[in-house]
Specification:
The protein contains 10 helices and 15 strands. It has 321 residues and is an alpha/beta fold.
Amino acid sequence: MTYFSHEHYMQRCLQLAKNGISQVAPNPMVGSVIVCDERIIGEGFHKRYGGHHAEVEAINSVKDTSLLKKSTLYVNLEPCSHFGKTPPCADLIIATQIPKVVIGTRDPNPKVAGRGIRKLQEAGIEVVEGILEPEGQFFNRRFLTFITQQRPYIILKWAQSTDGYIGKQGKNIRISDEFSRILLHKWRSEEAAVMVGTTTAIIDNPQLNVRHYYGRQPLRVTVDTHGRLPKDLNLLDTSQQDTHIYTTHDLHAIVSNLYERGIQSLIVEGGAQLLNSFLAENLWDEARIIKSAMILGDGIKAPSIEDIDGEKHAWGTILFH
């Protein structure tokens, strides 16, 4: 018989959890696996906000419930111990008499923060913590940033030419290719909000929605401090999703307001002034830079981030702050 490690089953939890990426916010992405005698007998993930949590889905998927009394439940985030949209998962685990629970990371939410673990331990359940913890923290970086820093996780995105320009003044120039555009729509579907500055909203007249990929429509955000936005802009068509227009240049105030509205993540798509403002304020977590083979010769210089190593991809680079 092949004996798998805790890491093996925790990796499966993360794999399952990713299925909820565009549906569960502002909740975290969570997957759960139930193992008996080295065999997975149940698994599940948090499918949508307000729906069953991963542990409930996994327990409900077990056909022979008598096996639960000698099983181990794996979950990438600490089981909740409080009543929210659903009852506490810790109570269900205790009620089903599962003797052992293996956890990836603790939940920093003040409503949980170790209470779920203590409740399990007080009921006599063996608890193992910290399995693939760094991977789990990175995986739920949006949720963790939202809880611990009380702001959305902020992603900066731009496309730049080979010679380092993102466009020409007053002109709508498409730098990225078709593949990159599909990728961008995938990214939009994964975040709670998408933002552009006033000039980009006017010159490019973007829809800022998800058209070339399946997923939810993000909240659209822009800035208009002097009432410059024409009423017929695509951004102001609310038939598909809402748009928030801020009349302040204070990015910290904008980000704070988005947090108060429960917006867990924000992708900022330009233009240069807005992107550079986020960089200047040190108000970002991740930068996704699409690099095109196009040569512009001159124009609007792309933002510059120095001395940070990033992940290299066929389409460009991802930098983590």
